[in-house]
Design brief:
It contains 12 helices and 9 strands. The protein is an alpha/beta fold. It has 2 domains: about 100 residues, no CATH class; about 210 residues, Spore Coat Polysaccharide Biosynthesis Protein SpsA, Chain A (Alpha-Beta Complex). The protein has a 7-stranded mixed beta sheet with strand order 3-2-1-4-7-6-8, with helices on both faces. Strands 5-9 form a two-stranded antiparallel sheet. Helix 2 links the parallel strand 1 and strand 2. Helix 1 packs across helix 10 and helix 10 packs across helix 11. It is globular. The protein starts with a helix and ends in an 8-residue tail after the last helix.
Length: about 350
């Protein structure tokens, strides 16, 4: 009888939080912002040792569906040691709306300092941030501008990682889907906690109102999440962009080492989240991991099959139902193994984040 109470409690807790998160996600997906206006935008990009990616970035920008006279692109080279600066300079030689700077005298360490320099050199109030190793889709600027024009102070979009051939690359893509799903749900539940720097935008006056990056210096990472934290503390309006033509794509890590390095940087930022953000994430992951590892108790009681099965069915449904909405497509037989591996790596990545100091590049 005691075991059955534990089992039913696990199922109840999991379904309670899972359904709440799902409702938060649907609420955001159904919110649409449409604007005929094409406001002026400043795109700011920090680049460091991106000689292999910079040409792809320019190729994708050539396909963006937005009036050229309505936006500027500011690229800040953060003391690259390869040919990044020279390649950018060559690419923008004939472009009148592009500017290139060197981050010689940064106010802040790492990427934040380069971005701050770019923002200070921008001429428009609406700022859009992306990374030098990304490829924005055609309507990215249109959708971002529509949200900002609708009155949002900060906006972030879906930024899918392309699923490669290696298992670690598929895992990174799957993790991107699960994290995007949860971060969008959190906005719907009014507990936003994370944004992707590959597709991030805000009003400059809102950015200045919260002190820019000056209140986000606890760690070298967090140029997106900690800025969002400050926006929440100041009760600013947060919006999301989920339209398929507004995705910003990036390639997956090419090795386990690079994957772990990237995750260390991301997770280190979460140590500085607001208490309510930590509670939300702690509750979500604790309940999910408890239900997942209840499978280890099946030898003691077959009743533990039920919470484990309920979780896998729910997770499978979420992936099948919403993966394409967020720019992903996983094979039918890949979903369950990836889901289990993803949650195991939550623990591995957390432990890894406690060791050493993260680096930008």
């Amino acid at each position: 009888m005691e075991i059955q109470i534990i089992v039913y409690s696990l199922i109840f807790l999991f379904l309670l939080i899972a359904v709440s998160v799902y409702k938060g996600y649907l609420y955001q997906v159904r919110q649409k912002s449409f604007s005929l206006n094409k406001p002026e935008l400043s795109i700011v990009i920090a680049a460091k040792n991106e000689e292999e990616n910079i040409n792809s970035l320019f190729e994708s920008f050539e396909k963006i569906n937005y009036p050229v006279e309505k936006y500027e692109v500011i690229i800040v080279d953060d003391n690259s040691t390869d040919k990044t600066y020279e390649l950018i300079k060559e690419n923008i030689r004939s472009k009148t709306n592009y500017k290139l700077f060197k981050a010689d005298k940064k106010k802040f360490e790492g990427k934040k300092g380069a971005l701050q320099s770019g923002i200070e050199n921008s001429k428009y109030n609406l700022i859009v941030i992306t990374d030098a190793d990304c490829r924005p889709d055609t309507d990215w600027l249109t959708e971002i501008a529509g949200k900002l024009d609708a009155g949002f102070d900060f906006v972030f979009g879906a930024a899918p990682i392309i699923s490669g051939n290696l298992f670690i690359q598929k895992l990174a893509a799957f993790e991107n889907f699960r994290n995007t799903y949860l971060s969008i749900s959190a906005v719907g539940l009014n507990i936003p906690y994370s944004a992707s720097a590959r597709s991030f935008a805000f009003r400059k006056n809102s950015f200045n109102r919260i002190g820019g990056y000056s209140n986000t210096t606890e760690t070298i990472s967090g140029d997106d999440d900690l800025l969002l934290r400050e926006a929440i503390k100041n009760k600013l309006l947060i919006g999301t962009v989920i339209e398929p033509e507004a995705f910003v794509y990036s390639d997956p890590p090419d090795s386990l080492k690079s994957y772990l390095k990237q995750k260390k940087r991301h997770l280190k930022t979460s140590f500085y989240y607001l208490p309510k953000q930590k509670i939300f994430l702690g509750l979500w992951h604790t309940v999910n991991l408890s239900v997942l590892f209840s499978a280890a108790l099946i030898p003691f009681s077959l009743s533990f099959i039920f919470p484990f099965a309920v979780k896998l069915i729910y997770d499978f449904y979420v992936v099948i139902k919403h993966q394409q909405e967020l720019g992903h497509r996983f094979g039918f037989w890949q979903i369950i193994p990836l889901q289990i591996t993803f949650e195991i790596f939550l623990i591995i990545n957390f432990i890894n984040s406690l060791l050493g100091k993260p680096e930008w590049k």
